[in-house]
Amino acid sequence: MKLSIQVKLIDECIVEDQVKDKFFQRENGKTFSLKSENEFRCKVVAIDECCFKGIEMRRCDFLFLVNHKNQPEGIAFKESKAFYVELKGEDIESACEQLYNAIDRTKTQITNHVIIAKVVGTKGSQPEMKNGEYFRRVKKLIRREIDFHKVGKFNAFNHIETI
Q1: Closest Cα to residue 88, out of 143, 5, 149?
Q2: C-beta separation of 62 from 88 below 8 A
Q3: How far apart are CA 107 and CA 82, in angstroms?
Q4: DSSP string of 63-126?
Q5: How far apart are the C-alpha atoms of 50 and 1, rounded to whole Å?
Q6: Tally of helices (H runs) and strands (E runs) in the chain
Q7: Which residues are within 8 A (CB) of 118 and not within 5 positions of it... i.e. 6 or more apart?
Q8: Sign of the Cα pseudo-torsion (70, 71, 75, 81, in order)
Q9: What is the pTM assigned to this prediction?
């Protein structure tokens, strides 16, 4: 049985809604960035610090919403995308749980978006993770695997996703 937990609406937790060529969020020395050759509209949502604030449940850090509509003139994306992002150290298993909890409790608010789950951490995907309970749950929810990105000394704890 699923617990009924009330999270704040995504629209109440937008920390950035602008048009530019690069968006990023940083936490604990790690950074996730979305960039494009052209400026694009993106909404950045504070999942951890707003949607789930005060709720004792593991959840991911941020959500980046790129809608194929409402883009500047001349910019056309084939589909809208929702990037759920967990900036993590080494505990990849808990990162999968955090992504699952956030996606499961907020995905009904973001219709018509392809959901992409990202873990940016100091350890990349480990083979045993693909057999983990939360990895499988996320895969079932979004119908794709979690993307793991290893960061470290040589790439300055930063992952840049080009859209």
Answers
A1: 149
A2: no
A3: 9
A4: EEEE-SSSPPTT---SSEEEEEEEE-SS-HHHHHHHHHHHHHHHGGGSTTEEEEEEEEESS---
A5: 25
A6: 2, 7
A7: 32, 83, 84, 85, 86, 146, 147, 149, 159, 161
A8: negative
A9: 0.87
The pair of three-digit structure tokens given for residue 5, joined into one six-digit string: 């937990």
Identify the residue whose tokens are 């996730």. 32
In tens, the pLDDT along 62-96 reads 999 998 777 777 766 778 899 999 998 778 889 99
How many Cα atoms occupy the beta-carbon half-sphere of 10 within 13 Å?
A: 20
The amino acid sitting at 91 is D
